[in-house]
Amino acid sequence: MNLLSMIPSNMIDLVGYIGSFLTSITFIPQVYKSWQSKSVGDLSTWMILIVISSTIVWLVYGFAITSGPVISANTIVLILSLLLFYFKLTFKKGE
Known about the structure:
Elements: H1 9-25, H2 28-37, H3 45-64, H4 68-90
Helix pairs in contact: 1-4, 2-4, 3-4
């Protein structure tokens, strides 16, 4: 008998949603700072593109296994990453 089998599935889902929430909010401070300062010069375009790509893969996986926590976290991270990418394309360097 493993430890996870002793935990009710709704508690495991709750842990998943808490983890997905915490993962999702990690980008909020950077998006807000970039929007406020209109500066993203220190952000790597490659890093943003890798995050977008990995998030899309995680979304495909989340939908394949119908995992709410995986889908919710990666949907939010994808939106925030796309915002950072948009800022990277539109904000002029040095401003």
